[in-house]
């Protein structure tokens, strides 16, 4: 029988709690749910009011992995959903607004991915994201070098950037913006990527072409398109170990000297939150959002 628990007055069915999802570490589904419950205080603000795409891996990262964008079958009626625009027409997606809906979604075994806009203003981006993806033998060390250059370039335009790990190989830069469409933010992000390549041609590439990427950092600007999503801060990733897309300080970026230095797992996150709070909290402050040049 599937156990039922009560979360903030909602009945949530939990299943297969002893199932090992990450064989390399023995990390179970129960531990995954515990992780999301304990980090909900910092995770939920980054999910709230943003349509969510789920990357599901019910049998662990070595099993079937698939994206779910539409409202999944069997979604409880109390989970908030919203109709959102898509290029192929409107669709209905989930909004993870509270702890109960977070635990319900986590029980599906998910990475959380969100757009760079809020559900009430899908025509206006409120974040810009740059995904720094290293092509071997480049690592996150080279991503940090590029991130520091981009931080200064953004600052020159009056935009304050923040960093988080991708939870895999690379680094994400984010900033709060206002008053621009996804198309305009994408254009600006591409301008930044091109400028970085011109400044560091031996280190940076702004095109997705695979043959250009070995030994360089691909600055992926395309995730700013309205239809695209990026791994949400604090989400677990479907990797060999339960790694997390974790916010990092600029001091950590500056001091990164080894590929594994900015790799954080589920157990690392709450001690970091206790030490630093939510390093990405400024992204949630509309008054700190900058207009694009």
UniProtKB/TrEMBL annotation:
It holds the Pfam family LigD_Prim-Pol. GO terms for molecular function: DNA ligase (ATP) activity. It is an enzyme of class 6 (ligase). Keywords: Ligase. Its EC number is 6.5.1.1. Residues 28-279 form the DNA ligase D polymerase domain. This is Non-homologous end-joining DNA ligase. It comes from Streptomyces hyaluromycini. The gene is ligD.
